[in-house]
User: Fold this.
Amino acid sequence: MSSEPRNHHNLIDALGAELVPVRRLPPPWRRAAGWLLVVAAIAALLFAHYGTGGMLRRWEGTPDLAWAGVGAVLTAISAAWVAFALGVPGRSVRWAWLPLPPALLWIGASGLGCLRDWIAPGTVVAGPHQPIGCLQFIIAFSVPLSALMIWLLRRACPLRPVLTAVLIGLASAAASASLLEICHEFDAAASDLLMHALAVVLVIGANAAMGGRLLQSR
Amino acid sequence: MHASLTADGGLGLDGVFRRPDSRVALSATPASAQQEADQRRAAWMAAAQAGDRRAYERVLADSLALIRAAARRQGVPIDNVDDVVQETLLTVHRVRHTYDPARSYDAWITAIASRRAIDALRSHGRRDRREVHDEQVLDMQSDHADATLDTEREQEARRLRAAIATLPPGQREAVEQLALRERSLAEAAEHTGRNAGALKVNLHRALKALRNRFHGEP
Assistant:
């Protein structure tokens, strides 16, 4: 220690002099659970309004839509946890791959909808204006969900802010797509899926551009 | 600029440019000894989070070799390693609440140090590019070298005075007392009614802000 430059020890003395007890950051799973609870509350409100009948009927007729829904939910859960985990220094950046398998399920199962030549019972193929509604829905829900997650990360220390912001975008977009599933009235046509994909890319891109900067304060 | 305090606790602006020699990185130690040391540091940091100053100073002093090793691994030149040590100590102070005592302390601080090392490499890269450019300009105007240098010095002094004037009051006071008037810490503390620790921290923050301003760091 005595061989260390004097200025390091002066700085350590100075930091010691202004030391105050701190409240520890809750573990990532608890913060992720808090965020997911808000998503679950919104889902409960949507179920109360739309009921479960329409969604279950579509899922019965076209199981790939159900798998896409499951994939979106799992993507939201895993991406949310990883975003919070990356806010703690020392966590392996390899965790960022965790949402990839459920995201592939979500995208892959949704894409299958384009290949099918039958339509889910009780639904119609989306008209030209309906996909715009999907785009608006996903973006409208993603913005507050992303903002909430950035707020929950305000005390964290994301050493890779842009990657964290991308995961925030992915979690928010996946959660919004899951919520959309509750009130989605029409089957997955190519134009509809294109809008979903566009919405997800927009949400992730906006987060990477803006969220990265917001998270870079430390 | 480089933030450093002189051995007697006072500071001249020339000290700002000093780059102390770097010391050796971590030597190879058996895995069990490293694990033991990690656990010891984890316990100290946990106590520091609760406000134990002695444990805090111990863990920071004990972390210097880890920080140096991380900086060297990232490829930081030996002359700049001490800058990374100072930046890492300041970051640790800001984000100490993010450490989870159930996890490795060494992984936590190494991640922070690696990040600060990358930041240092980027900022030095930018600075080097600018300095090369400045040299080319100087060569082109060799006839007016003396006059140009005098003007540049005056401009630099003006810029420095203007930058100091924009600092927050506490930081400005620390720079004026310790750097410009070259008062000792004890004299400055007596004169301002602040304790020496607060003055030192304010000085470090001021130097960091000035360095960012003059070297264009974000």
Q: What stands out?
A: Residues 11 and 217 of chain B are 23 Å apart (CA to CA). Residues 1-27 of chain B have pLDDT under 50 and may be disordered.
